[in-house]
Design a protein that fits this description.
The protein is α/β, with parallel strands linked by helices and 339 residues long. The protein has helices spanning 38-45, 92-95, 136-139, 142-155, 170-181, 193-201, 214-221, 242-245, 267-272, 287-295, 314-321, and strands spanning 4-8, 11-14, 26-36, 54-55, 59-67, 79-82, 85-86, 106-107, 119-123, 127-129, 162-166, 185-190, 206-209, 227-233, 247-256, 276-280, 306-309, 332-336. The relative contact order is 0.17.
């Protein structure tokens, strides 16, 4: 059975594992698809530290093959999303029985073994049943939609609020769509013509290049008031200083995404604008809401280029994802596990 284990930076090894038994409160899931993400890529490169060895793969869907005697709401052959974040069990909220409010969720592939393997045995509460209306490939977008919902709640803006979304990659595009669904006005900023065109095709009216005309375009879009909030997608590799430059005084900036790549936010401008800076790095607790949005077609995933791999070397895939010059923004690279 396949089980891709990260032994060290840029070293993924396929090591089959022994057959796992299923406990009373556990399920066994045959993994169907795994989305190769920027988060996995920075783990692979060593840019984000992890305790080796670790099976990686943060986003996956599959089908239940075994169910423990004390599991509820799940059954054999049910399609499920493998939840990529779990309560840590160590923070104050977890220790007082409020795991749903965990302040430091554990993340698949970093804090516990991820899903780039044939079978996963886990607690039945660590999977989410998939509605018939949500296909397997769309379900791989669930965490990105959940992240966007958390950002929306964090912003606390009324309808009509103008939000700069800096970076229209996979997560950034979905974020802009979710904000628009909630009647906010996203202003997408990117340095990729392909990403900007995709945003426009998803119905995002304001989509601007990160070039010398950006300041004038932002002023025109906001009637000179600048933005009510700005969200910097952490794996975009766009100049992070834009986060403050497009933001009005006394407003909120959010760092959002799955891959915490090193970058610097200008502290002087942050202080001068009396801005609030927060971060959202997972969709923990929002999976059900995200699936509901997918059921109701609130997010259009059809414009993302999809590459489904049946034969692959994850070392080559993650190695190429680490090369910013070769990345096609918004592309979904998916490992199809053998069924």
């Amino acid at each position: 059975m396949d089980n891709w284990i990260l032994k060290g930076p840029a070293t993924l090894v396929n090591e089959p594992v022994r057959e796992q038994t299923v406990g009373a409160g556990e399920v066994k899931v045959k993994v169907a698809y795994v989305l190769a993400s920027n988060f996995d890529a920075v783990l692979y490169s060593g840019e984000t530290k992890v305790r080796y060895p670790k099976t990686i793969g943060r986003f996956a869907v599959g089908r239940i093959t075994e169910v423990g005697a004390e599991c509820y709401g799940v059954e054999k052959n049910m399609r499920v999303l493998l939840l990529p974040a779990r309560s840590c069990g160590h923070c104050l909220s977890c220790k007082t029985g409020n795991g749903d409010e965990c302040s430091s969720p554990a993340i698949a592939g970093r804090d516990f073994d991820g899903f780039l393997r044939d079978f996963v045995v886990c607690n039945y509460t660590d999977v989410a049943p998939l509605p018939d209306a949500v296909g397997d490939i769309d379900a791989l977008c669930t965490e990105a939609v959940a992240l966007a919902e958390r950002v929306y709640d964090e912003l606390e803006l009324p309808a009509g609020g103008r939000v700069a979304v800096i970076g229209s990659n996979f997560a950034g595009n979905i974020l802009a769509q979710v904000l628009q669904y909630h009647k906010l006005i996203p202003i997408v900023i990117d340095n990729s013509p392909q990403a900007l065109e995709r945003a426009k095709n998803c119905g995002i009216y304001y989509s601007f290049a990160a070039d010398d005309d950006l300041a004038e375009n932002i002023n025109e879009a906001t009637s000179g008031q600048l933005c009510d909030a700005s969200v910097y997608t952490t794996c975009s590799r766009i100049d992070p200083a834009l986060t403050m430059r497009v933001l009005a005084n006394g407003k909120r900036a959010v760092l959002a995404g799955f891959a915490p790549i090193d970058f610097n936010i200008p502290a002087r401008e942050l202080c001068e604008k009396n801005a609030t800076l927060t971060s959202v790095m997972s969709g923990f607790g929002y999976a059900d809401t995200a699936l509901n949005l997918l059921v109701h077609k609130a997010v259009n995933t059809s414009l993302f280029e999809k590459e489904i791999l049946t034969e692959y070397d994850p070392n080559a895939v993650y190695g190429s994802m680490g090369d910013a010059a070769s990345v096609k923004k918004g592309k979904m690279t998916i490992f199809k596990m053998i069924i």
